[in-house]
UniProtKB/TrEMBL annotation:
InterPro entries: ABM_dom, Dimeric_a/b-barrel. Coiled coil: none annotated. GO terms for molecular function: monooxygenase activity. Gene3D superfamilies: 3.30.70.100. Keywords: Monooxygenase, Oxidoreductase. This is Antibiotic biosynthesis monooxygenase. Residues 17-77 form the ABM domain. Pfam families: ABM. SUPFAM superfamilies: Dimeric alpha+beta barrel (SSF54909).
Length: 92
């Protein structure tokens, strides 16, 4: 049985008060994520001043889960804690 890729799409909404800190932390978060084994695509684009559109693709569930675990323990998690996220995760 072939393992399916895991795709996450959607957006994170940032408040104006936290925008500078999120913008400053984003490049390192992108860099570290793109280095992860199984990361096929990881794009985050700011739209409309504070809406960060996210498009991720991982080779399989294990790679996606490892990304989630690393991200949860990162500076990015601290900087973005409590910000609303509108994500859809699917197998492709």
């Amino acid at each position: 049985m072939t393992q399916k890729q895991i795709q996450l799409t959607g957006a994170m909404i940032c408040t104006t008060e936290r925008l500078a800190e999120v913008r400053a932390a984003l490049p390192e978060h992108i860099r570290l994520t793109r280095l992860e084994p199984g990361c096929l695509k990881f794009d985050v684009v700011e739209r409309d001043g504070g809406r960060f559109e996210v498009d991720e693709l991982f080779s399989d569930r294990a790679a996606f889960d490892a990304h989630q675990a690393r991200g949860a323990a990162s500076d990015w998690a601290r900087v973005t804690a409590g910000l609303p996220r509108e994500y859809e995760i699917s197998e492709v």
